[in-house]
Amino acid sequence: MMVNVSYMIVVSKDAQLSEGQAVALAFFGNFTDDYKASQIFAAFNGISSLGNIIVITFTAARVKQEIAKEGILPFAKFLGESLPKDDPNNPNFTSRIEPLPVGALLLHWSIAVVIIVAPWTIDPLPYYRLLTSLDSYTVEAFFFTVLGIGMLCLRFTQTSSGGRWRDKSSSNHVISIIAAVITVVSNGFPIIAAWFPPSSTTPKDITNILINPWYVVATVGWGVLASSVIYWLVFRFVLPRFGNRKGMAFVVDRRPFLHSEQGYFVQYHEIVTFSWVSERRTPVAEYQLPERPLSVMDL
Question: Which residue windows are transmembrane per the record (predicted)?
Answer without folding.
Answer: 40-61, 102-122, 134-154, 174-196, 216-239
